[in-house]
Amino acid sequence: MKLSILDQSPIRMGQEPQQALVESVELAKLADKLGYTRYWMSEHHDLKGLASSAPEVMLSYIGAQTKKIRLGPGAVLLPYYKPYKVAEVYNTLAALLPDRVDIGLGRAPGGGTDVMTTLSDNFLQQAFKMPALVEELLHFLNYKKSAVTGLKAAPLPAVSPVPWILGTSKKSALLAAKYGLPYAFGQFMSNKDPEEILHEYRTSFQSHRGQQHPEALLTVSVICAETDEKAKELAHSALAWSIQSERGDGKVGLLPVDEAKQYIDELPDDQVKADIEKKMLIGSPTTIKHKLKSMQEAYQVDEFMLVSFIPSFEERLQSYELLAHEIFTEEASS
């Protein structure tokens, strides 16, 4: 089983965004040391509590301080950008970090209406053109000249970045399948059935552009601690932040556990909490391992990308470390 990380650079209550970005660097270095497969950074804009708005900047900085782990955005919000420029940016990164670069591609706005209109004059129209944008990007990533301008997306790295489609729907799964691309399903932010969507991806997959077989990963929200009880305590902060984001409560950053518990206890309806909590994996390393193995069997995936919202940075690192030791040590001895 492969483990990877999706980092959204969460900002703790009262913390400066600069420190959240520094912690992202430290997390990536630990993941590299522990044997995680990938470290991806999300792209969000003006979203309270998150510092990751420019993953391309962070990934170059992180790449210089890591050795093996694959790096990529999770995801480039393609409707905002010209494919040619995206290819140039990630070709440059791939030239500096040979055979270590992915490009996750998404069509979400990554923020509110004001973000859409500030970053793009025609985001919705471009979002509808997502298949054409993906095809144009693949053209440049395969070192081909533009039929119109004759341009190539220089520099041309020895190993091209690997594009992935990210999504939570059949539409995204079918887009990945059409172009023969690997697919990352965001289970942590979807109420849809991964089994059905991943089945659509595999059965519709068209092998070309070097990708001969379907490849999928599942992104899941994980809170891991030494015991189930401790993990349940820590999960209050992630639950509170998710509820605040959905309700627009105006809080900034991850609340400490005690404040998060108080916030949740004062909610008039427990259904929102229950809906969010059922999408999270919460428990000890052994508990989480068993849950991941069940999901691996049910959804036929060999890789899980973990996203973890824990208010203490030390306990956040420990969450990833405990699970890595549980999974990798068992596999090494078998």
Automatic annotation (TrEMBL):
Its EC number is 1.-.-.-. Keywords: Oxidoreductase. To bacterial alkanal monooxygenase alpha and beta chains. Residues 1-298 form the Luciferase-like domain. It is an enzyme of class 1 (oxidoreductase). Signal peptide: none annotated. InterPro entries: Bact_Lucif_Oxidored, CmoO-like, Luciferase-like_dom, Luciferase-like_sf. This is LLM class flavin-dependent oxidoreductase. One of its GO terms (molecular function) is oxidoreductase activity.
